[in-house]
Design brief:
Order of helices and strands: HHHHH
Distance between the termini: 77 Å
Largest sheet: none
């Protein structure tokens, strides 16, 4: 093999390694955000599912604690990485909290929670003013298994 051919092969190999390494590092950084998003969604979904189960089956105190856990986690996510998804989920969580407080006979706490829910929903949909009944209806709709949900009006 001639020296010129050997040099060409070495240069081509180095160019391939350099290009592959650069592209690999770029793709790893790009996909890292996707993995982080998946972790946030998984944590948020787990606390939402737990709060929904507690809402359906537990006493008001435990249901309230589960919803407060969900709210605390969502507020942390919102502070770290603001998102309309977190805002909407906070609206749903505060609505569920209002429903728990109402069922426990805590009317004043329920009204405060409904107001927080409206504030969060307003950030997502500034053109709509939802009533307490509409928000409660949305939460009750989401509580049903997907196959049992009628379409929303």
């Amino acid at each position: 093999m001639s020296a010129q051919l050997r040099s060409t092969i070495v240069v081509a190999a180095l160019a391939g390694i350099l290009t592959g390494g650069t592209l690999g590092a770029y793709m790893a950084r790009k996909n890292d955000g996707i993995v982080e998003s998946a972790r946030v969604i998984a944590a948020s979904s787990a606390t939402a599912a737990f709060a929904a189960e507690q809402f359906r089956h537990a006493d008001p105190q435990h249901a309230r604690e589960a919803v407060m856990l969900q709210i605390d986690l969502l507020q942390q996510f919102e502070r770290i990485a603001p998102s309309s998804v977190h805002e909407r989920n906070l609206g749903f969580a505060y609505t569920r909290l209002a429903m728990v407080d109402e069922a426990a006979g805590q009317k004043a706490d329920s009204e405060v929670a409904f107001q927080h829910a409206k504030d969060w929903f307003q950030k997502v949909h500034p053109e709509n003013r939802l009533t307490d009944v509409q928000m409660e209806s949305f939460v009750r709709h989401l509580e049903k298994p997907p196959a049992d949900r009628p379409p929303l009006p």
